[in-house]
Amino acid sequence: MNAHARPDELRDWITRHLDPLKETDPAAIPRSPEEDLTPGGWGEPDQPLTPASVLVGLVEREAGLSVILTRRADTLRRHTGQIALPGGRRDPGETPWATALREAQEEIGLDPAYVGLAGLSTPYRTGTGFLITPVVGFVRPGFTLTPNPAEVADIFETPFGFLMDPANHEKHERTLPTGEMRRFYAMTHENRFIWGATAGMLRALYDRLYGAAVA
Questions:
Q1: Tens-digit pLDDT profile for residues 140-151
Q2: Measuring CA to CA, how many Å separate 5 from each of 9, 10, 61, 209?
Q3: Cα–Cα–Cα angle for 127, 129, 132, nearest 5°?
Q4: Which domain holds residue 150?
Q5: What is the domain-level CATH number for residue 111?
Q6: 3-class DSSP state of 158
Q7: What is the pLDDT of residues 98-112, one digit of tens each?
């Protein structure tokens, strides 16, 4: 289905392509989209991964769905100033969706009452040792957002149709301090450079919804 379609047309279709809300550990760590770009992949993690969750908040606007994104605060120790989905480390005993809703409320002040949870997208392994579960939820208009200045410098929305268009999925490469070459996806919208885990999870959502054909 066209990602630019009306939210009411997309809601059920997207939900059918997601995993249901149930807490199960993946039988195997899935490959990230970037691993298919990097010769030899990333290799096996050398220690247990830390569980985390993010909220892929799909706002139901008249013009179509949009995704809530943030720019991380410049004072943070890691990933300073990068574009991110609201989320963070999972607390003991939390479900992935409880973490996503809690973190979204703490980071951007999103009231969970405005979020209708749809399901889970593909878990994503980061190079820093996290296994992130993207939790997809539809956000009805009327909410207000307030960034937590300790974590978030800016909050904005990006059209879902833009993010799900493979023509906008740029391919980049970077040499790590170890000398290893890492290739990754990125998306640039209105001078905002979306890359890293955020772009990887959005690309994985595209693969899930529209197939894993190479753009």
A1: 999 999 999 988
A2: 6, 6, 11, 14
A3: 90
A4: 7-18+48-161
A5: 3.90.79.10
A6: strand
A7: 999 999 999 999 999
